[in-house]
Write a structure and sequence with these properties.
438 residues; three-stranded antiparallel beta sheet; Outer membrane efflux proteins (OEP); 61% helix; four-stranded antiparallel beta sheet; alpha+beta
């Protein structure tokens, strides 16, 4: 199966040479889960989302076009009833006409049509895989955003608690005359800012939760795991993409072969077709009084002149092939560009994350030192204390954002490398009648 076909049909008439290997249903998981993990969210999205069904319907459509093209190999029978005035018999004479033909040799016309339809179906197969990979990326990034804003909400709550503590401290000192009223106002303003920041984070969290639940088809709130699989952090390593599993490149290859088949078909159209034909005409008024006439013979026919249509089709097919070659090069370039860019960003952010961890420890120690100096020694102003508190939590916000930005880049690397389905264990599962096979 490996390397022979990318999708295995459950339908008998596909004619793509693919064989069903297993039948594992991707049924949606139970709603009652303690924590929704990244893997489970992806599987739930793939099992039901309409974008996958849309791609599957296009695949079914393209498969029927193969059967339509193959019909050219089989006999054709035509029939009709003709009514006309016969001057010899002085009346209207209905005539039944029957004819049949069987193509004997056509210089590859039907072969080219079948090859073109087959490659079109393979392109549709690649579109299905592309829809699955895109849904994996979209769902994974939505869950990562939920994780981001859940962590930011915790940091915002800690920030609000910290400035409220400072505000209460300033109020007590103001009541005893150790601080001025302006200090109390300044602390209250920082409390309002922290509250506004928390409300903004809550709004973003609700937005991303709604987006995620829509993607996975959830009907109510679900608890989200704050963790991601350990293998996700390794997806941006310097390995080459699995080009045989990159849907965009698979589609580009299929489109090129489709264009090549159409070019061969346009060349064959300029040549004649040899067929075996038979026909009869039966006068219905004399059907039982006369033996019907019939004829059988070989027919060698073709267009002598069609106004240049055949030449134009040939030129169009040649340009389509050139465009398909350019499209394949473009897809290859874009994938490598996007993958390289994601890897470079990952390397830079990983180094920055290490420095942020050190910054968090330093800012916490600075905040605690400033608070002692403000309360016990009076050598620090309230502004120093508030700024230290703000910088501490800003460092935590930055660290959280950086961690989740890295996770999003890891998902991008997974998408561009063609390993998304394999990593989420979707390669050998059946989605609505189609196996996502290796």
């Amino acid at each position: 199966m490996k390397g022979k076909c990318k999708l295995a049909w459950l339908f008998a008439a596909t004619s793509l040479g693919c064989v069903m290997t297993m039948q594992v249903s991707l049924a949606p998981a139970e709603e009652k889960q303690s924590l929704l993990t990244l893997e489970e969210a992806v599987r739930r999205a793939v099992s039901w989302h309409p974008s996958v069904e849309e791609a599957l319907d296009r695949l079914r459509q393209s498969t029927e076009l193969i059967n339509e093209a193959r019909a050219g190999y089989y006999p054709r029978v035509r029939g009709g009833l003709e009514a006309g005035y016969d001057s010899e018999r002085d009346g209207w004479q209905p005539t039944l006409n029957l004819s049949g033909s069987q193509m004997v040799y056509d210089f590859g016309k039907v072969d080219s049509a079948v090859n073109s339809a087959t490659e079109g179906a393979r392109a549709s197969q690649a579109e299905v895989l592309g829809a699955v990979d895109e849904l994996i990326r979209e769902t994974a990034q939505a869950l990562i955003e939920v994780q981001r804003y859940q962590q930011l909400r915790r940091s915002a709550q800690e920030q609000l608690a910290g400035v409220l503590e400072i505000s209460e401290l300033v109020k007590q000192r103001t009541d005893t005359g150790a601080s001025t009223r302006s200090d109390e106002f300044q602390a209250a303003a920082r409390v309002e800012t922290a509250q506004g920041n928390q409300l903004e984070i809550e709004a973003q969290l609700a937005r991303w939760e709604s987006n995620l639940f829509h993607l996975i088809g959830a009907t109510g709130k679900m608890a989200i795991s704050p963790e991601v699989p350990a293998w996700l952090a390794k997806t941006c390593d310097g390995t080459e993409p699995d080009w045989a599993q990159v849907p965009a490149l698979m589609e580009a290859d299929a489109r090129r072969k489709e264009a090549l088949a159409k070019l061969e078909g346009s060349k064959a159209e300029a040549l004649p077709t040899l067929s075996l034909e038979a026909g009869t005409a039966v006068n219905m008024a004399e059907a039982f009084s006369e033996e019907p006439e019939f004829n059988v013979g070989l027919n060698f026919s073709g267009n002598l002149y069609d106004g240049g249509a055949a030449a134009s089709r040939k030129n169009a097919a040649a340009h389509a092939l050139e465009a398909a070659d350019a499209a394949r090069d473009r897809v290859h370039f874009e994938i490598m560009h996007n993958l390289t860019e994601a890897r470079q960003q990952t390397h830079g952010m990983s180094r920055l994350l290490s420095s942020l961890a050190v910054r968090d420890d330093l800012m916490r120690e600075t905040r605690d030192l400033y608070r002692r100096q403000y309360v016990e020694l009076g050598t620090r102003s309230l502004l120093d204390l508030l700024n230290a508190e703000s910088e501490l939590h800003q460092a935590r916000f930055d660290k959280t954002n950086l961690i989740h930005d890295l996770r999003r880049l890891d998902v991008d690397c997974l998408f561009y490398s063609g390993r998304a389905r394999q990593s989420f264990a979707l390669q050998d599962t059946v989605v609505r009648g189609v196996a996502l096979a290796r």
